Task: inverse folding
């Protein structure tokens, strides 16, 4: 992996207007996506992980807007894009997306072949037999047997796993540089999940894709990611290489998230659970957003937002615990078990 | 677990069919297992395997097409007396998957939680009912004031607690929990799991836990049965099953679970279960106990191979 950023997000703020109130969904997020890497964004529902990646493709809901900040891609600031025409130069061609539910992301009235061809014709300006050949190639690329026959079938004739393969084929249709996978396997069975993850990994190698995974499943994250970003209440609280985040986490929220994994539980004993609920993003958040749920929160956590401290050149965390004057707080001992092969 | 375990629920060769009688679809094709009093028994399988159907057939939502369900010594499937039906309805309760869909949107929590009491054999006065609702809500960690609110005022985790309170108010002995935490966020999941095991300790409840999430099953279940296409493949104590699975389907299923640790990454293509590995043309498969407490589906030839494998594992 070279360290050249392909996409760079700077101090991004995203707001939504909901029932007359303003919701601050993304709070001052900066993120560099490096060429060829696989980045996983983890967080609970409502943490802003989907919204963040939707801003890369101009797919935000009507009531949302980028308040400030920039998204640099190929020397262009995507945050300034307004019209569909501008977005069509990015969407599909440069950045493509695979969504969670393969049952709803395909059109039930059109054959699989037509749906893939549509994307090719729209973006690559080829038609007829050339486009058709590309459809067949794509289908066999994503591991669908008998592509010629299958391309004439409708979505309902496909199983969930096969449908997700079709969705991936559509995403791959225009040779994108960046592939965003938003919970690509959440709706699938574990054995199918393993196959789809394997397929995406193969495609990433074959086409040198840069990939962003959005998921709440830490098992999936550990299996696919080079780098992991942890989001909480619209902010990236910790980011680092996968091993750094799993084995040497620094932020109390990352600790809490990892500790509540059932794999770390001891039978007959209580599983660690985070108390309370995430803060409301309708109100201005003061200090560390996680402070209210963190029993070991410091006084300053409630007053001032912590800066992003550098742990290593690749590992950063937004917590006052890393300040030189902070008291020493050790991570929960249970996290040690993640390193042991007990899990295997 | 003690040696003298009492069987609470016994399922014998259960069959469930859907569709018309002329062209039935066999969802459950003859499943047998016992659940002991006080344990958590897990039923794991992929979508369409029939795990939910079994749970629903036990609480009499679906009719069985064959076999027996014996609860506390009495047969409870098929035609039973009204009296027994009432008893079973009280003693066996269910917790559903989706807390957003399983609560009546137009009823207040008070009614949702106490609805079962209206249909029980004992008649309760208004005060008694209110008191029971209050206690049930406290038991699941909710405030009694919540009784006068509507479901939409609650978060997913709180709604699932309401679903649990609704089951508890009947003072059941046996609870069928069908994917009770699948729809919840990671941090809320842990809270609900803790609540379920606390309640089990306090009241000696027995759970049938239905899920596709193997890591949760490993944490919460004493014994696990693996189901595939309406048939049990393997059954055993949780740790034994996770460490030394015998059946190829169990192996494929376990190997597919991603570990939350980057050093345990699974490289290479995933194991895929191929039914054609079984040659059942002449040598028919059967369901039997291969070692104490460990059941597996196999034919004579496979049986011998599994026994070899068990010896090797020690």
Result:
């Amino acid at each position: 992996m070279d360290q050249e950023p392909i996409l760079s997000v700077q101090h991004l703020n995203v707001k939504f207007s909901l029932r007359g109130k303003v919701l601050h969904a993304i709070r001052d997020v900066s993120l560099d996506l490096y060429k060829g890497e696989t980045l996983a964004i983890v967080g609970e529902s409502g943490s802003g992980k989907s919204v963040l990646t939707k801003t890369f493709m101009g797919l935000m809901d009507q009531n949302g807007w980028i308040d400030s900040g920039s998204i640099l891609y190929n020397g262009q600031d995507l945050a300034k894009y307004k019209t569909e025409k501008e977005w069509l130069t990015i969407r599909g061609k440069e950045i493509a997306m695979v969504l969670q539910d393969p049952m709803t992301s395909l059109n039930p009235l059109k054959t699989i072949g037509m749906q893939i061809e549509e994307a090719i014709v729209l973006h690559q300006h080829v038609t007829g037999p050339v486009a058709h050949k590309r459809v067949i190639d794509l289908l066999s690329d994503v591991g669908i047997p008998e592509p010629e026959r299958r391309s004439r079938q409708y979505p309902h004739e496909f199983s969930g796993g096969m449908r997700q393969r079709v969705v991936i084929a559509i995403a791959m249709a225009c040779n994108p540089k960046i592939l965003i996978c938003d919970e690509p396997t959440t709706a699938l069975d574990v054995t199918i999940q393993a196959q789809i993850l394997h397929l995406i990994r193969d495609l990433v190698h074959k086409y040198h894709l840069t990939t962003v995974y959005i998921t709440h499943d830490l098992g999936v994250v550990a299996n696919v990611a080079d780098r992991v970003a942890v989001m909480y209440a619209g902010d990236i609280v910790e980011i680092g290489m996968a091993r750094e985040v799993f084995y040497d986490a620094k932020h109390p929220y990352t600790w809490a998230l990892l500790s509540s994994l059932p794999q770390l539980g001891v039978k007959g004993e209580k599983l660690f659970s985070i108390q309370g609920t995430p803060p409301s993003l309708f109100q201005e958040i003061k200090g560390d957003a996680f402070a209210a749920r963190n029993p070991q929160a410091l006084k300053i956590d409630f007053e001032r937002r912590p800066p992003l401290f550098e742990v290593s050149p690749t590992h950063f965390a937004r917590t006052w615990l890393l300040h030189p004057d902070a008291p020493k707080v050790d991570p929960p001992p249970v996290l040690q078990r993640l390193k042991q092969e007990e899990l295997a | 677990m003690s040696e003298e375990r009492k069987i609470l629920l016994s399922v014998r060769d259960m069959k469930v069919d859907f569709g018309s009688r002329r062209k039935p679809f066999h969802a459950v094709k003859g499943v047998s297992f016992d659940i002991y009093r006080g344990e958590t028994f897990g039923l794991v399988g992929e979508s369409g395997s029939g795990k939910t159907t079994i749970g629903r057939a036990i609480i009499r939502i679906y009719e069985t097409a064959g076999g027996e369900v014996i609860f506390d010594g009495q047969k409870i499937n098929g035609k039973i007396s009204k009296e027994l039906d009432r008893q079973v309805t009280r003693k066996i309760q269910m917790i559903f998957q989706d807390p957003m869909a399983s609560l009546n949107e137009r009823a207040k929590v008070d009614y949702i939680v106490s609805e079962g009491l209206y249909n029980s054999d004992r008649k309760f006065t208004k005060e008694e009912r209110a008191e029971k609702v209050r206690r049930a809500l406290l038991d699941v960690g909710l405030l009694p004031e919540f009784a006068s609110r509507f479901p939409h005022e609650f978060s997913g985790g709180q709604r699932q607690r309401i679903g649990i309170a609704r089951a508890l108010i009947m003072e059941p002995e046996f609870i069928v929990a069908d994917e009770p935490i699948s729809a919840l966020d990671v941090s809320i999941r842990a809270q609900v799991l803790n609540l379920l095991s606390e309640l089990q300790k306090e009241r000696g409840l027995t759970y049938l836990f239905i899920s596709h999430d193997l890591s949760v099953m490993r944490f919460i279940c004493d014994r696990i049965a693996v189901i595939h296409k309406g048939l049990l493949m393997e059954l055993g104590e949780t740790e034994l099953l996770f460490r030394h699975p015998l059946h190829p389907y169990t192996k494929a299923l376990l190997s597919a679970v991603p570990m939350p640790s980057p050093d345990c990454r699974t490289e290479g293509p995933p194991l895929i279960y191929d039914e054609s590995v079984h040659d059942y043309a002449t040598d028919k498969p059967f369901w039997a106990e291969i070692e104490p407490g460990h059941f597996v589906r196999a034919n004579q030839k496979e049986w011998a191979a599994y026994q070899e494998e068990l010896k090797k594992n020690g």
